[in-house]
Backbone:
């Protein structure tokens, strides 16, 4: 189900890595379209290339062949500096490991992307506080990561990813280290923030049950993406 104008388009994406004995083809012609406010899940076996694809879609890596367009911007034509600025302003990332800075509080971790973007400090603090409140962490703002549970740390990571109001959030196995209760809480937060922020989400997961929260599901298999139709749909 597409909910808006075309936001991101990936065409014929190829990626090969150098293996110990021979090259390993990870992506062999993957195609994907993401529309505004879409929620898209990508499933696949371990080692199928899901994270590689996400990194390419988000501009963290470059394909060997193929094109990535974000609205009218051709990511292949950007140099590394331009691509870094583009990512900071347009794309949020949440990974399996939260990657929070241990010496900073939750609030400081969340407003870091705003600092990098050069936004005014009062605006940054207000935005970070709002996001932590919306993710259920208003009473944990001054706590450092070591003082937070795993689920709380991931919710801080979600708030940080939304700091610069990105049009799309790339989530790579965000529940991979969480128990069932915290998994449900994080998915609920993601869905709530998607609705409030009008942010599209690409969710990478190996768990088909988690993928079922998404209207659009694809399986990455043999280097290409195939639509998945739920049996009860």
Residues:
């Amino acid at each position: 189900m597409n909910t808006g104008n075309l936001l991101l388009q990936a065409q014929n994406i190829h990626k090969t890595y150098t293996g110990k004995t021979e090259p390993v083809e990870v992506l062999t012609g993957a195609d994907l379209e993401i529309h505004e406010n879409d929620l898209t899940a990508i499933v696949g076996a371990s080692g199928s290339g899901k994270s590689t694809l996400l990194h390419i879609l988000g501009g963290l890596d470059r394909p060997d062949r193929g094109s990535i367009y974000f609205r009218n911007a051709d990511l292949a034509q950007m140099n590394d500096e331009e691509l870094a600025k583009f990512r900071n302003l347009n794309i949020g990332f949440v990974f399996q490991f939260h990657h929070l800075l241990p010496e900073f509080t939750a609030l400081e971790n969340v407003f870091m992307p705003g600092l990098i973007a050069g936004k005014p400090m009062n605006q940054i603090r207000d935005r970070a506080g709002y996001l932590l409140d919306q993710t259920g962490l208003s009473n944990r703002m001054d706590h450092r990561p070591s003082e937070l549970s795993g689920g709380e740390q991931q919710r801080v990571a979600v708030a940080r990813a939304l700091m610069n109001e990105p049009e799309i959030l790339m989530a790579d196995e965000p529940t991979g280290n969480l128990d069932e209760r915290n998994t449900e809480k994080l998915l609920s937060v993601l869905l709530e923030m998607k609705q409030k922020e009008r942010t599209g989400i690409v969710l990478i997961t190996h768990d088909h049950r988690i993928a079922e929260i998404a209207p659009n599901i694809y399986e990455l298999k043999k280097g290409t993406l195939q639509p998945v139709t739920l049996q009860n749909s």
